[in-house]
Fold this sequence. Notes:
Largest sheet: 4 strands, antiparallel
Helix content: 40-55%
Number of helices: 4
Structural class: alpha+beta
Amino acid sequence: xxxxxxxxxxxxxxxxxxxxxxxxxxxxxxxxxxxxxxxxxxxxxxxxxxxxxxxxxxxxxxxxxxxxxxxxxxxxxxxxxxxxxxxxxxxxxxxxxxxxxxxxxxxxxxxxxxxxxxxxxxxxxxx
Length: 127
């Protein structure tokens, strides 16, 4: 198996070590491989969306970036059937979008959030 070197900050290493203990992984490499497999599988699912689709898009972000969410949201109003906004705590928000429409547009709105570095987490679930 080829070896790939990566650099991780101390915070991520601590989280990896916690996962290793709580989930029973035998080492950091096993955790990283599992994470990469999950990421590759999710991205493949997004790429393979075709035709009319239903999906849920979840976005986590700092409260101060509500305007950025609104900007992306307005570009895809025809795709968004329901939008829920919830404050998770004093400074973080969760947006949940129920999407119905062309898979290319679903991919585009997802990419809009994924490529915005101000978003903490973006997750698409095709239904």
